[in-house]
Amino acid sequence: MQITKRIFSTLALVVLTVIAIRISWLFAIVVTTLIALALNEFFKMVETKGVKVFRYFGILIGIVIPISIFFKFELTKSWELLFITLAFICLFLLQLSRKEATTSVVSLSVTLFGILYVSWLFSFMIKLYFLPHGPALVGMLILTVKAGDIGAYLVGSRFGRHALILRISPKKTVEGALAGLGFNIVFCLLSKLMLPMFSFWHLAFLAVFIGVLSLFGDLSESLIKRDCGIKDASSALPGLGGVLDVIDSLIFTTPAIYFYMSVMFK
Predict the structure, then answer these.
(1) pLDDT score at 129
(2) How far apart are CA 80 and CA 191, in angstroms?
(3) Strand partners, 173
(4) Residue 107 and residue 112: Cα distance in Å, rounded?
(5) Is 121 in contact with 22 (CB distance < 8 Å)?
(6) What is the per-residue pLDDT for 81?
(7) Rounded to whole angstroms, how far apart are CA atoms 125 and 253?
């Protein structure tokens, strides 16, 4: 039953991704929606630890970042200092309005961390989209990462015997990680159909690079969930968990591939 739900949710996401990649504004809407949902899940996870975060303000800022990138109002350029200053002022004003002051540093830090970890890093997906061959690069990245996730799950759940990092994620195994890397390589090589300008050796290198970073992203979210004492970020996607559980392996790979490709296509 669980595997059926997982397959159904995965297929639904694949169809949505294929459609969205073909239309730039729809792709931006999908990325922004995923960020908002994932941020909400992150803040709710942290709140289970008794930390009072500025959830709605954080989600608002998290939405502004990808929208500003899509409309090319680059907060990371000349407006960066002003935007960061205003965000800090707003957060401190919100904190001053609270009666409780004993957790001020934690509340402010966690809110900012959530914005950077989820919104800022995943927003590079839109930047990657607007590079030369952007839609194909996005397709290659998602195909490679998600193929690795599926491979790790299929092999690890059945043949996994040696825990990868037991204290962080008991169900992640060395066998699953190696299988995931194998799937990364195979499906990244298949993406040559979308990116004929890359050699097979180059794609194989990218597959390993992406595979290692995606595993790191997965383990990083597992660390957060472990600290919060929960199994999944939410139950929004049957069989897969929450939105953050789906995009965690893309959070570090996306900006890394963006910077790499920015140099490649100069």
Answers:
(1) 96
(2) 35
(3) 163
(4) 9
(5) no
(6) 60
(7) 10
The residue range of the domain holding 260 is 2-264
- Distance between CA atoms of residues 128 and 132, nearest Å: 9
- Paired with 241 in beta bridges are 237
Average pLDDT rounded to a whole number, residues 22-39: 95
Looking at every residue in the chain, the average pLDDT score rounds to: 86
Only one residue has tokens 């169809």, namely 15
User: Among residues 136, 106, 121, which one has the least CA distance to residue 69?
Assistant: 121
The per-residue DSSP string of 73-128 comes to --TTTTTHHHHHHHHHHHHHHHHHTSS--TTHHHHHHHHHHHIIIIIIHHTHHHHH
Residues 130-133: contacts with CB under 8 Å, at least 24 apart: 130/24, 131/258, 131/261, 131/262, 131/265, 132/265, 133/195, 133/197, 133/265
Residue type, 220: S
User: Does residue 71 sit in helix, strand or coil?
Assistant: coil
User: 216: how many CB neighbours lie within 10 A of its CB?
Assistant: 14
Q: Output the CA–CA distances (angstroms, integers) from residue 217 to 27, 134, 140, in the order listed.
A: 22, 22, 18
* DSSP track, 186-230: HHHHHGGGT-TTS-HHHHHHHHHHHHHHHHHHHHHHHHHHHHHT-
pLDDT in tens, 212-266: 999 999 999 888 888 888 877 777 777 778 899 899 999 999 999 999 999 988 7
Q: Which carries the bigger pLDDT value, residue 61 or residue 76?
A: 61
DSSP 241: B
Residue 180, pLDDT above cutoff 60: yes
SS3 173: strand
**Total count of domains within the chain:** 1
pLDDT band for position 50 (50/70/90)? confident
CA distances from 7 to 31, 39, 97, 177 (A): 22, 25, 46, 20
